[in-house]
Design brief:
Distance between the termini: 38 Å
Number of strands: 17
CATH topology: Jelly Rolls
Order of helices and strands: EEEEEEEEEEHEEEEEEE
Strand content: 35-45%
Helix content: under 10%
């Protein structure tokens, strides 16, 4: 028998949802609503050594994009906004980024499925990614209140909560789920060190952002004023302090 938790949902300008469900993984390119595309775009291996937070955006993703990070440098597809980001053993890794993301230059469509693996080397967890941001912004203060994206945090605040926020990870109206060690509900379990988690972030209707970990929906947010268009077209990996690594990124454009 599966134990269920009552999750605190906050209401303000959003309608917020938190759903516990095991969702079968669709094969990219075969799921309902996936844009038809034969081509598969792979990340460029051209070196990029200069950190340029104001660099121009790349082309819009029209086909499935993949990056396995099997090279020596983040490459020209990535806009790294702070020090510390590097490739190690075929993964994109960082520690102490202090909310200076590595942004993918290629632009997201309004609707997309974003999949990747993430691993924390710390018992403090804190796995973080951003979607539909501007591709260049980074924190300007200790508190990350100037984000341009939806922010997904798994095991944040020393592994005490999972969060889905819009523009401000500290916003009082963010969706959150408290973590309880020993909890039987898999949504409320803490991040384990050195375990690779499979993330999936989706927007299929132009409004609702949902994020899953290991095929379990963690949180969702229905936004009446969705982040769409110029300034909201990029995906990024992020970190505060702990050592984290990311791998096997797949982005699949979905039909609008």
């Amino acid at each position: 028998m599966v134990a269920c938790r009552v999750v605190l949902l906050r209401l303000s300008v959003f309608t917020l949802l938190a759903v516990a469900a095991c969702v079968p993984e669709d094969k990219p390119g075969h799921a309902n609503g996936v844009a038809s595309a034969v081509a598969v775009t792979t990340a460029s291996s051209a070196p990029l050594h200069v950190v340029d937070p104001h660099a121009g955006a790349g082309p819009k993703l029209e086909a499935r994009f993949t990056d396995s990070f099997e090279r020596g440098d983040p490459g020209a597809d990535w806009n790294v906004t702070g020090p510390g980001w590097s490739l190690k053993e075929g993964r994109l890794c960082v520690a102490g980024a202090h909310n200076h993301p590595a942004w993918l230059r290629r632009r997201l469509p309004v609707n997309a499925r974003i999949e990747f693996e993430a691993t924390s080397s710390s018992s403090e967890g804190d796995l973080k990614a951003e979607a539909w941001g501007d591709g260049s912004s980074a924190a300007t203060a200790a508190a990350y209140r100037n984000a341009t994206s939806y922010i997904m945090i798994y095991g944040g605040w020393k592994n005490t909560m999972h969060v889905l926020a819009r523009l401000d990870e500290h916003a009082p109206d963010r969706t959150e789920l408290r973590v309880e060690p020993g909890e039987t509900d898999p949504r409320a379990q803490p991040v384990l060190p050195d375990r690779a988690y499979r993330f999936k972030i989706e927007r299929t209707d132009g409004q609702t952002v949902r994020y899953f970990v290991d095929d379990i929906e963690i949180l969702s947010l229905k936004d009446p004023h969705p982040l769409i268009g110029e300034g909201h077209e990029h995906f990024g990996f992020n970190d505060w302090q702990v050592p984290v690594c990311f791998d096997n990124l797949i982005i699949t454009p979905l039909k609008s």
